[in-house]
């Protein structure tokens, strides 16, 4: 079974590391499976890309398309063309995509147009905010893919509501559990300190989504909110390169109690998670990683695709307004959530996915 994996962004590197390792184990046990990785180049900063391949032992990509710094349409179109050319040359048995980025959609569309079965890991997630590029990507990818690996029961329900279901003689929707939970269980003991000192007690924050960074008014509001939180609890913020550039363009600055640090790798982020009191983020992946580490999360958006975390009381939707962010932080500093629920499976999602990928027919 020849499988081509498409990745381009930090969360996809983490997920691909787990599934690639499961493929390698299957091959060592006599399963005929071979993987080739295409890196679209979507994250081109070393701290956002190359370092992940190095520290997580991900097989090196067979090609890097080098597509970045363009509009959403420009990136998706260039990626689609580059992926299609590789697939036409190699004719793999399966194409594997992850998450909700432009790389995800380009990979699924290229496979679908060439009649190559596509598998989507992290299928069925919905924020129901069509102004988010990620929402468009995940919906279209689900409907273009052949088989859908859902991380939660809610994701399966979302697909059923859209009419995406198994067909006679063909399985389309599979509950796999979440590969990010697999990754956390494997890598948490391997975490390492970042290359900068951190306070003894702190909140961990990340800001990178275009809806927050590309609107100067919203970005200014977020900076005010984090500065306000830092007046109560120091904030450690590994700063995304795009966020740093947008802040410089807008003349915005953090207070001295916000440590705006360079981007960090996954193992360093796990270390920062382990040491923090709580998390403030607009990242989907970090919301889950906070839950795995049993750290409460304040989401700096108006919605989340991980609705089960809100239902469990471990995540609060704050948006960007200073008063709302402060209220959520105050709640979590004075209330310890219940961490007993396990909505993301048993830590063996990758094995389930590889087992399905290696089946001769779906």
UniProtKB/TrEMBL annotation:
Organism: Oceanidesulfovibrio indonesiensis
Residue intervals of the UDP-N-acetylglucosamine 2-epimerase domain: 32-357
Pfam families: Epimerase_2
This enzyme's EC code(s): 5.1.3.14
Family affiliation: Belongs to the UDP-N-acetylglucosamine 2-epimerase family.
Domain of life: Bacteria
Keyword set, alphabetical order: Isomerase
Name listed for the protein in its UniProt record: UDP-N-acetylglucosamine 2-epimerase (Non-hydrolyzing)
GO MF, one example: UDP-N-acetylglucosamine 2-epimerase activity
UniProt lineage: Bacteria, Pseudomonadati, Thermodesulfobacteriota, Desulfovibrionia, Desulfovibrionales
Family annotation (CDD domains): GTB_UDP-GlcNAc_2-Epimerase
Keyword Isomerase: yes
